[in-house]
Design goal:
- It is built from 8 helices and 10 strands.
- With 200 residues, it is α/β, with parallel strands linked by helices.
Length: 200
């Protein structure tokens, strides 16, 4: 019960606070603004790219998911790329867990089998179920934005509420993939759900 009360307290944070914490590590976002102004001033896709990048900082992958100690941490974007060059700008010259960061784009899951974070574009919505089934149990952090993404087995869903970007987590799916999400990240989630969409 104590843990649930603590989680509810953290979930009551406004997204302005959440975004400020996530974007603190992203120099590409203008500084010197109050948190609410940062959210409004940053282009939406740059903000989402920054949040996606920072998610990876709070995830631990099995060592076996990398080909070696110097292998990069790879982001994959499946389908129409909504970020344009925003994502490239965010990751340029950056590292996560001591690894270089790379991004790959593809129309087929076969093009992105070696990625560690997989963003599923809304253009692939009709294929979400089959794509998520194909990567089920694998150490790939799946991120999407559609309303039923977590119900279909996705791990993190980004969504906009009252002009603010929020996220929710399917912890059961990430556990199946052998991924460890930090308590910091879970505390900032708007909700944490299991595979059937039940909120903890």
């Amino acid at each position: 019960m104590a843990r649930r009360g603590e989680m509810n307290r953290f979930r009551s944070l406004t997204l302005a606070t959440v975004s400020a914490l996530l974007l603190a590590l992203t120099p590409a976002i203008p500084a010197g603004l109050d948190p609410g102004e940062r959210v409004r001033a940053a282009p939406e896709m740059r903000l989402k790219a920054a949040i996606l990048f920072n998610f990876a900082k709070y995830v631990e992958w099995p060592a076996s998911s990398f080909t070696g100690p110097t292998a990069p941490l790879t982001f994959g974007i499946l389908g129409d790329d909504p970020f344009g060059n925003e994502f490239d700008a965010v990751i340029a010259g950056r590292a996560i867990h001591g690894r270089a960061v790379a991004v790959k784009r593809g129309r087929s899951l076969r093009d992105l089998t070696d990625c560690h974070v997989l963003y599923l574009s809304i253009s692939e919505k009709e294929r979400f179920a089959s794509i998520l089934l194909a990567v089920n149990g694998r150490p790939i952090l799946t991120v999407g934005e559609s309303s039923g993404f977590l119900l279909q087995g996705g791990m993190i869903r980004l969504f906009v509420d009252e002009s603010r970007v929020r996220f929710e987590v399917n912890l059961e799916a990430s556990n199946r993939g052998g991924l460890k999400l930090s308590s910091q990240m879970l505390q900032l989630a708007s909700s944490i759900r299991n595979g059937q969409g039940k909120e903890e």
